[in-house]
Amino acid sequence: MRTAILSAMVLVVSCGLVWAAENAASSELQQVWLDELDLSKAIIGWGQIQKNKSVDSKPLVIAGKSFARGVGTHADSRLDVKLGGIGEQFEAWVGIDDEVAGSDQGKAAASVEFLVFGDGRLLWRSEVMRAGNPAKEVKVNIKGIDTLRLQVSGGNDINYDHADWAQAQISYRLTAPHTIDVVMPAPYILTPKAGPAPRITGPKIFGVRPGNPFFFTVTATGDRPMKFAVRGLPEGLILNSDNGQIRGAVKNAGEYKTTVVAENKHGKVEREFKIVVGDTISLTPPMGWNSWNCWACAVDDEKVRASAKAMVDSGLLNHGWTYINIDDCWMRREGSKDPVIGEPVRDKDGYLLSNGKFPDMKGLTDYIHSLGLRAGIYISPGPNTCAGYIGSWEHEQKDAERFAEWGFDYLKYDWCGYSRIAPNPNLDELKKPYAVMRDCLKNTGRDIIYSLCQYGMGEVWKWGAEVGGNCWRTTGDITDSWGSMAGIGFKQAELYPYAGPGRWNDPDMLVVGKVGWGPNLHPARLTPDEQYTHISLWCLLSSPLLIGCPIEQMDEFTYSLLTNDEVLDVNQDPLGQQARRIAQANGIEVWSKAMEDGSRAVGLFNMNEFEARKGTVSWKDIAFAGQCQVRDLWRQKDLGMFENEFMADVPPHGVVLVRIIPAK
Ligand code: GLA
User: What distances in angstroms separate CA 239 from CA 242, 283, 375, 397, one per listed residue?
Assistant: First the structure.
């Protein structure tokens, strides 16, 4: 029945196209400039798409040649035009706008490819173009095409990729073409649903400082009600057997080996759990949520509570997701006339005040903690934050105290406004504000994960741990495009020596689900395969995993991406190694991460956008030999025993993530 309806639909569509084509032939040829169409439906890697201007709003110029008309965009960019069979020809002059050719950085980084597709078929490609290359002429026959896609691909990096479709024009007959929403390939779910019997998830190791408040929630999937028990819990800690929350404090430093037990009507399981009382916290990468990629400055108390509640209600907590972090815009702004943001920015004793969107910070963290979650906050060491709110400059100790008093467990410390204090910082100046806050946090008597955010300046990975950082951003801000995500993620290759328990490279927060950096959200503009790549890569990299979408609005596909326990185990492995790139050829990258049990987690990534390719991992590259067992982690399925190598088809921009276990 379904097939019959589908074929009828196909018939109607193709009859429509034939009808349009036949009628078109007899009617007058007309032209429309691309810049006359509604461009708001385009997706673009950075900035706003522009009519008759470059993406930076300058006149369109390619290699010294000016163009009066056209569209200025930025890789990765896609624009879909509905032709319905009435098109004749698409023509344009394409190239990188001269506005990026002025700097050495721009010249070096800018590289794009212009692509024209008709109904998913590649009709024309420019080959890679760089800044200063003369404009290339495009003339494509688009007869009989239903949907035309104009795409600019930035390869694996979108820095400086300002791309112009100059003098772009569509010739057609009959009805004028119009733009439509860009259609993404349909999502497909690989993660099997969690079963009814208990399965313990989350980290197998947890660090706490002696005497500081201890708070850890044992997490497990499986039907509720569930009972928890812990054998060998050190003195000073108490478990709530109904919800798995362990609280208290441990006086004496040392390693405590415990066994966690979870039981429901379907069964009982146990797992080892090590508590390390010492000087290092964040022994595995933090996993949670952050408000920035979704709400940016539209964040408020209600939205934070909604994500926290959904973290529990959706079951994400049961997979080990525990942090709820507020990013910028919760504080006040000097000189603000806005009654919500308001002044004064601090109380009479110099302690920070939250703004009207966060009326009760302590109440908020109490709520977050009551759910078994931890709370995070953000500020800048400078006089102001990136968004212009008050920073910690000259109030560091008081701010640290206030954060501790409010009950925060995580601090993101974002350089931003500090560039007013140190505009051209040398290494000592780069380290200074972070060392200051490290000492202030220590004095609070609370374990607060310390997340350095300064975009990788001065090779922060080499000294982030020295200034007390538990993680450090290694790059600029991520956006939801392949060029941005892959550009950032795959560039972490050389940083593996610097990661380890308590010290993680941070390639920025996740861009899956709905993102938007403001009140209006859109589904992340990554294909399903690109999203599998994103999560697999971040897990292999042992990166902090911070969800950037409102959890209460999460769709089933995104949920499946974030609840695959075998994939998350790669991220949370107690050995804390970051994956290394071990092979790279024919557009396939092979990354391998050594796991505590002696196995390897291996990602085969296909950097090619248009075709599936074979990826191979050779045992010799991972120091294995003979027979090894291979398990597909996304599907949670054994693939069998393999000798010397494993080979798989990897979808375009996609990944095959496996665990390779040597035969005993
Ligand atoms: C910087 C950071 C972002 C975010 C914003 C807030 O851009 O890199 O992650 O925190 O500031 O303004």
Answer: 9, 21, 20, 33
